[in-house]
Amino acid sequence: xxxxxxxxxxxxxxxxxxxxxxxxxxxxxxxxxxxxxxxxxxxxxxxxxxxxxxxxxxxxxxxxxxxxxxxxxxxxxxxxxxxxxxxxxxxxxxxxxx
Length: 98
What we know:
The protein is of the alpha+beta class. It has one domain: Alpha-Beta Plaits (2-Layer Sandwich), CATH 3.30.70. It is built from four helices and four strands; from the N terminus they run βααββαβα. The chain has helices at residues 12-19, 22-27, 52-63, 72-97, and strands at residues 2-8, 30-33, 43-49, 68-70. The longest helix has 26 residues, at 72-97. The model has no long low-confidence stretch (mean pLDDT 90).
């Protein structure tokens, strides 16, 4: 399962503290500047790809945070951008070691 969240620059300190907890360290979400991912917002996007049970636990923890779950076309666009970034990184490593 894949989900994407957004949080503003003003919430960065609180979100960094939350994302530094053991659960999120093990989960390994990807955090990027939204503008770099194609979203015209001033803040950060969190991409989570994990088993359904882990995604549900992340949802519970993030529901009490300043982060907002993105849905619909906006979420689809960001998930695609995160996947393309990961594929490009894998291709680069393949070229490096291939």
